Amino acid sequence: MSLDPATVRRVAKLARIRVDEAALGQLAQELGGILGWIEQLNEVDVDGIEPLAGAAQMALRLRADEVTDGGIAEQVLGNAPDRAGPFYAVPKVVE
Amino acid sequence: MTYVIEGRTGPWELVIGLEVHAQVVSKSKLFSGASAEYGAEPNSQVSLVDAAFPGMLPVINQECVAQAVRTGLGLDAQINLVSRFDRKNYFYADLPAGYQISQFAHPVVGAGTVEIELADGSTKRIGVTRLHLEQDAGKSLHDQDPARSFIDLNRSGVALMEIVSEPDLRSPEEAGAYLRKMRTILRYLGTCDGNMEEGSMRADVNVSVRKHGEPFRTRCEVKNVNSVRFVMQAIEAEAARQVQVWEDGHEVMQETRLFDPARGETRSLRSKEDAHDYRYFPDPDLLPLVLDEDWVASLRAHLPELPDAKRARFVAQHGLPAYDAAVLVADQETAAFFETVAAGRDAKQAANWMMGDFFAALNRTGRTIADSPVSASSLGGLLDLLADKTINGRIAKEVFEAMVDTGEHPAAIVESRGLRQVVDTGAIDAAVDAVLAANPDKLAEYRAGKDKLFGFFVGQVMKAMAGKGNPALVNEALKQRLA
Amino acid sequence: MLTDLTLVQARDGLRRKDFSAAELTGAHLDAVEALNPQLNAYITVMGDTARQGAADADAALASGDTRPLLGLPLAIKDLFCTAGTRTTAGSRILSPFVPPYESTVTANLLRDGAVFLGKANLDEFAMGSSNMTSAYGPVQNPWTRADGAKLVPGGSSGGSVAAVAARMALGATATDTGGSIRQPAAFCGIVGVKPTYGRCSRWGVVAFASSLDQAGPVARTVEDCAVLLGSMAGFDPKDSTSADRAVPDFAAACRRGVRGLRIGVPREYRADGMPPEVDALWRQGLDWLRAEGAEIVDVSLPHTKYGLATYYIVAPAEASSNLARYDGVRYGIRVDGVDLTDLYERTRAEGFGKEVQRRIMIGTYVLSSGYYDAYYLRAQKVRALILRDFTEAFAKVDTLLTPTCPSAAFAQGENMDDPVKMYLNDVFTVPASMAGVPGLSVPAGLDGQGLPLGLQVIGRPFDEETMFAVGAALERAARFSALPAIRAGAHA
Asked: Which tens digit of pLDDT belongs to each residue from A20-35?
């Protein structure tokens, strides 16, 4: 199966990964190869089969409503590449 | 009478749906133990889970689930005992994980209804499609630095209930009534404080227009409108814009817009290179949410009396007209205040005083029921003084103003200012005589047939008695003298 | 040599005061210094931390402390967040990241007295079967081939396994998503255990595919792994997928024997083109178990062949979402851009290697609008069928026996031209991952080139004990004693 470069460009955009135009073709081929191989799943009869939810456990455990976390601004901000006092800083976003 | 916009080509109807985002009242966040309180120092209420550090995992808060279920019960909605969390994937500065945990395919609450009351006294049932739980995002500040935006994740992960209405609304007024009613219900339940200025309740408005009898046309979404008034204005502005587009021969494009209150118009959101593809899929860090029927039943059993039920009871028990009852139950504290005032007294009179002088005074002094200068028992005391004829209606107003100003009890004010109603017929007769003597020409006109002057004489006598004359006795005395 | 001891022997030796924890750790640090430049099994060596930990252990031992891992030096796969020590996930994007928190699994090991020698190398973000995709260089298998080619140790836990096989650690933590513990263990001639999904906490483990990732031990014997797992495992309320079950005595289970157990042989694992020596070893394994009193039963797992394709939809899909958080804003590297979107795109393009980028793209694609039903939803249904296969088989047998891999270790650079070729390495390990059932690989023999081959035991959910019993029986019968050429104490 082949993926066209426009599709690869769109997927790369959704994934926020910069792909050079020059590399698009190669990537399209690789991805196409993988997806083509995956197509074999179409052989399986999945009529009436429920998709697997979580393996092993049954239902979500509920936690008590208590404040047990937070107040760790230094830990939260300590690894930030760009920090402005108590804030993370990023290039200005225009709405 | 359906609301319409008159276009060049004729009348256009509106079709409106509202998506309300209501912040859940809880101590900690939906999936982390950080505090959900408003207004703290930036990034001081952030857990490593909220900040999406490597290896961090969500654990759900039971109270948030309970609040969602309570809200569903309050909306008379179906509670789904099995529901599921999905990831909504997109990139934004205030979304640390690059996805929001939400519920897409299987929300915790299904279909319900909200009954709204309109100004003409009619009611209308608006459908609620669903309610689901999701995480709130953090906050970006764009005005602190010329080249950078600053991110505060305190709000990131706070629980939100997204409540989606059916597209059953047909006018700005209906939309406003729906929002107000929704806020009232949420506040009654204690599941959201409904504070739109602070952002704990926000509305996305879906608007489309059509000619009568047509199926639905394309709609646009106006996002994040943060007051009832703006919602109504946004609807008008957006509907007018769409009518213009259609009548110009173009097509309305489905898009997301923002309302600019200063300009009174909506504008398209700029970041729209391609429509968001959220790639929803079940969150693999979580398992299905399974609720116990008995637990839901116990939540139901402990719900407070809701606005519609309270309104119905006020009509039945207190004999109030439906409109008055609706006004009084709009706020839980107001309803409670009213019931205290009305206890053992004339409920209609209590209602009239509250809806008239009392609300006016609150407005004037910028107070709310919670910090009212006049307590319920004080107001009740005033009604007692009226009932036993210690004062008359006009004096009561004067006493009430004094209560607002001084916070004193009505009985004390009446005594200290000597405002007791005069019932001494001798004094009344004397006042009547004096007035008639002082106005011979008016008396002559009256005798000549100008009946209207009776009111003038009543006014003059009341004035002479500093308002304290018992109106019935004054009337009686005047009638006798003028006969 | 101290580095030739098994973990259990070292534990007992410390308790008997045959040697000190300082000596034991010192010997391993010496081995790391001597061999790591060649094998590249460690990304970060924690020399000071290790020596301090050993000193503390000696003091504790002197006071009669009998914690199960006291003073035992381990390698930690660099996917586990270790407080105060750089954690890279084998990626450039996390190269400066120092977590302020300790993963639950490694906290459990520290609680039980273990000493950490360093952070072991791995395929980037645990995506790979060869440890060739690490941003910190490939790992070399301590086993060598006659033609002198450098071999891969397998992946993604290549560093953990190479460290143990070369005696640069007594044991190590690893993670398994589609075979990342079992396959490298087989390639390097040691034991690797993937427990039941939910047995170990995932809190603090850098997430790859959340519904598949499991932490597990690698060591040179089955009993060593049992001891390690006993410490690693346990319910964690911070992980919603963590199983609330008591941790059994896995080490005791190793001594049970296999009399009366039913061993299933899934016919679909006998694929066309399976190398004869792998098949022969498999039959040999069955003979060993039969001789020990087990009953061999043919079973069918009809959806086996779809395991890989299912895996390569589900895992990348979850990964594409799990790796969205690596955006240059809160931690890790940042590459500047003209605006925020550009910053994201450049940071991720430079921070992620090619294989990771490919998998994120596959994952994004299969979840995208119009494709969700055809790919992801379908894959999750096939996954349910794979689980059903196992469930039905386990109604008839107690464990399954299969080869771990279709071949022995291959050379660095082989299989790199086509991603799918690399994926096929996991054909025998992936189905157990998809079903969440436990799997163990035990070295059972050598191939024609003198390279190790492993046998895989697959158990019922939460019945690691029976799996350990069978694994230990195979180990006793196989008496695998071959050693890799590159190891501590070997002279070139």
From this structure: 998 898 899 989 988 8
Q: Domains in chain C: how many in total?
A: 1
Minimal CA separation from B271 to chain A, in Å = 7
Q: What is the largest CA-CA distance in chain A?
A: 57
Strand partners, C263: C296, C399
| A window 30-89, beta carbon within 8 A of B | 53-54, 57-73, 75-77, 82, 84-89
Given pLDDT bands bounded at 50, 70 and 90, which one contains residue B272?
very low
State pTM to two decimals: 0.91
Residue C73's domain comprises 2-263+396-478
Q: What is the pLDDT of residues B183-236, one digit of tens each?
A: 999 999 999 999 998 889 999 999 999 999 999 999 999 998 989 999 999 999
Q: Which residues of chain C lie closer than 8 angstroms to A26, CB-CB? A: none
> How far does C180 lie from chain B, in Å, by closest CA?
18
Domain boundaries, chain A: 5-41
Judge contact between C200 and C233, C-beta under 8 A. yes
C77 flagged as catalytic: yes
- φ, ψ of residue B269 to 5 degrees: the values are -70, 130
**Chains in contact with B, where contact requires at least 3 CB pairs less than 8 Å apart:** A, C
Is A78 part of the contact surface with chain C (CB cutoff 8 Å)?
Answer: yes
Of B53, B279, B284, Cβ closest to residue C210: B284
Domain membership flag for residue C126:
yes
Tokens 């040179």 map to which residue?
C220
Test A59 with B153 for CB contact under 8 angstroms: no
Q: Quickly count: other Cβ atoms within 10 Å of residue A63's Cβ.
A: 21
Amino acid found at A81? P
In-domain check, residue C189: yes
Say how far apart CA C157 and CA C165 lie, in whole Å. 12
Q: Of the candidates A7, A15, A90, which has its C-beta nearest C320's C-beta?
A: A15
- Determine the residue type at B28: S
- Give the domain CATH number at C174: 3.90.1300.10
**Distance, CA of C15 to CA of B74 (rounded, Å):** 65
Distance from C-alpha of C488 to C-alpha of C170, rounded to nearest angstrom: 12
pLDDT digits (tens, 9 = 90+) for C28-46: 999 999 999 999 999 999 9
Residue C442 lies in a domain: yes
Residue C383 domain-assigned? Answer: no
Cis peptide before C156 (omega within 30 of 0): yes
From A42's Cα to the closest Cα of chain B, the distance in A is 20
Mutate to test the interface with C, among A2, A18, A46, A87 (most CBs of C within 10 A): A18
Which residue out of C103, C130, C156, C231 is catalytically annotated? C156
Residues of chain A neighbouring C321 (CB-CB closer than 8 A): none
Query: What is residue C420's three-state secondary structure?
Result: helix
Running along chain C, 492 residues long, what does each successive block of 10 average in pLDDT? 96 96 98 97 98 98 96 98 98 97 98 98 95 96 94 96 98 96 98 97 98 97 98 97 96 96 95 87 98 97 94 96 97 95 97 96 94 93 96 98 94 80 85 96 96 98 98 98 94 54
Q: For residue A19, report the phi and psi dihedrals to the nearest 5 degrees.
A: -120, 125
C150 in catalytic set: no
CB contact under 8 A, A63 and B288: no
Nearest to B360 by CA among B302, B404, B314, B419: B404
